[in-house]
Amino acid sequence: MSPNKLYQSTKYSPEDMGRAIAAVKGEKSVAFASKQFNAPQVTLFYKIQGKYEVNCRIRPPTILTQTDEQHLVHWLLNISDAGFPATTTQLFDSVQILVKKLNKPNVFKNSRPSQKWFNSFIKRNPQISEKLTQNLTQARFQPTEEKIRSWLHEIRSYIDSKDLSNIFYDPRRIYDADETAFS
């Protein structure tokens, strides 16, 4: 059997399965609860019988724990809200560093997450799919005065929303840069 057949994605949510289990315990039939809550009948039956744990995963375990992934998602959403959406390369770099710092067994090829890992990560965390940038087009990357002013306004709004506006009055945060040093 091919690996893709072995681990077909589930089409039900844990909440649906929980409601189906509650319905069966409340004297409904397994077939009725399965149909009503869109939960696989055999899986529901096995969970009721105790053959499967109610919250078990069928797929192999993920490299990062659910808590680690939630921290990563929180970071991605925060930097995106601040106006600096991460690219997939930055995400891969961050995961590579995170796995190393947490002393996790690195099962990635070349010690780096793959596109398959990325696709699975997005499926587990769909709220970040639109926050990740793939490639910046040249037109989007071209700065104009209007885009810069808009960006500065967004940054100011973000800083105000986090109640950090006092940083504007800290003299240690004043920098001077000469454009000749940039290449």
TrEMBL record:
Q: Which GO terms describe its molecular function?
A: DNA binding
Which InterPro entries does the annotation name? Homeodomain-like_sf (IPR009057), HTH_CenpB_DNA-bd_dom (IPR006600)
Q: Which UniProt keywords apply?
A: DNA-binding
The compartments listed are: Nucleus
Q: Does the keyword DNA-binding apply?
A: yes
A GO cellular component annotation here is: nucleus
Domain HTH CENPB-type, by residue range, is 56-131
So which domain of life are we looking at?
Answer: Eukaryota
What is the protein's name according to its record?
HTH CENPB-type domain-containing protein
Q: What is the species of this protein? A: Ignelater luminosus (Cucubano)
